[in-house]
Design brief:
The N and C termini lie far apart (40 Å). By secondary structure, the chain is an alpha/beta fold. A five-stranded parallel beta sheet has the order 1-2-3-4-5. It is built from six helices and five strands, in the order αβααββαβαβα.
């Protein structure tokens, strides 16, 4: 409600409703978070249900603040998309889609696919997952892209740059083919400030000079 009341509803275009709920090491594939411990696996469904109910409620209540009439106007411009975001999603299987599920009840608009990759990652495996998620939801974001160097010799930055080039070339092909990928976020600016400093995964050196990977991506 704060975001609606204070004029942010047409600025915030998406909510990361649930983040990193999966854990492939657990029997049911879900992270043993406090939400999970207190409520159980149903917390995922109710997060999306309550988020959807809230944006419908407040978009109607505060529509006039945005020059809209809730009786006659389309309120989608002040109803941010609801996203689920996670890592390793290119190896996660598809969820059930019947009534009473997040997907089946139309409570999810988009998927955020993290991309903590390295220069040997199978790009086609990632693109296959991208296509499957695109078929299931309205919109895809790549939310945390970085590409680690697997080598340590003079050629390491070349192979990293080659991967960035090939990866973005394939993303462009996917978008031209109809995949609704609308955002790619690089997960950091300089290698020395990255959470993966040991593999130098970003586009700029610590002195802000651009790496071959930057030129390759452009």
């Amino acid at each position: 409600e704060y975001t609606y009341r204070n004029g942010y509803a047409d600025i915030i275009y998406a909510w990361d409703v649930v983040n990193e709920a999966c854990d492939e090491s657990q029997p049911d594939g879900l992270r043993n978070s406090y939400w999970y411990q207190i409520i159980g696996p149903d917390y995922l469904y109710y997060c999306f249900l309550y988020a959807r109910e809230a944006e419908v409620l407040y978009s109607n209540q505060y529509a006039s603040l945005y020059g809209l009439n809730p009786e006659t106007d389309d309120l989608s411009s002040i109803q941010p998309k609801l996203f689920y975001n996670d890592y390793n999603e290119w190896v996660v299987s598809r969820s059930p889609d019947g009534d009473g599920t997040i997907y089946g009840d139309g409570l999810i608009d988009g998927i955020g696919m993290q991309g903590h990759l390295d220069d040997t990652q199978n790009i086609e495996q990632y693109m296959t997952a991208l296509e499957k998620y695109d078929a299931a939801v309205d919109e895809i974001h790549i939310t945390e892209l970085d590409v680690g160097c697997t080598g340590s010799d003079a050629n390491a930055e070349f192979y990293q740059a080659k991967f960035y080039y090939d990866f973005f070339a394939r993303l462009i092909e996917e978008v031209k083919g109809g995949v609704n990928l609308t955002s790619v976020t690089i997960w950091g600016l300089t290698d020395d400030a990255s959470w993966r400093t040991d593999v130098n995964p970003l586009l700029f050196n610590g002195d802000l000079s651009k790496k071959p990977a930057f030129e390759a991506m452009v």
